[in-house]
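Much of what follows relies on a compact textual record of a protein's fold. Think of the row as the fold of the chain written in a discrete alphabet. An example makes this concrete, so a full record is given next.


***
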Amino acid sequence: MLIALFVMLAGAGAGSLGAMLGLGGGIFLVPILNIALDIPINNAMAISLVTVIATSNFVSLSTSGRKWANARLAMVMQVAAALGALAGLELLTYVDERTREQIFGGTAFLVAGVMIARLDLRNVLHGSVTDVGLLGGRVEDPDTGVEVAYRVKRLPFALGVSSAAGIISSLTGVGGGILVVPALNSWCGVPMRVAAATSAVILGVTALPGVVGYFRLGYVTSPELAAAAVLGVLAGSRAGFWITTRVKVRSLKILMAVILGTVAVEYLFFK
């Protein structure tokens, strides 16, 4: 019971950060389960993927999620993400545990570097712009209080990253948002909050094949812990969306980079 309560609290923290940053929470939950609770990495990844699906469903249905997420872009990217996740599922039995830990840490390190390098980038246009393209959109910018517009650039690159995110999701249990959010924000012209919410919508599709694969391999051994983590993530996701409109985008990027950098160091050098 005590372990389940701790997992629920860990899920709440992961869900809050995941909703704020569009990462699905897995990048935070896996290290907590694996390092703090000494749960084997494969079992921790399986629990994480279940919570990623819960977070995605919450974002898709919540008012805040619908406000920020770009549904058209998400639908296009989900196709590539699903194909990547299926490919990752096929690779799951061929890639050993330590290699997957290194992929996990290396991906986190790369993304942290990208976020710091492009810390002050803002992908917004003046609200008077009339042509935002087929996949662009308009949102109210909480940082300035005015309506802004954005266009989606480099769509083929976004689709490629989405496919890679699907592979990473199945291999590491993190949902793939650690690739999708920086790619959309840094290279595809999508504002940070829109990228985070759109990524969260996509994550459920990327996580589903992984859950099936981990269950088939016998790694879903603690359904009670998965249920506790899901309850925590759902509560934390609600808090995360409330917080994200009250924090500067620059602060969100710094937070993402610090957390990802810490996780990367742990899994690359100390595991």
Notes: The chain has a mean pLDDT of 79. Residues 2-270 form one domain. The first helix runs from residue 2 to 21.
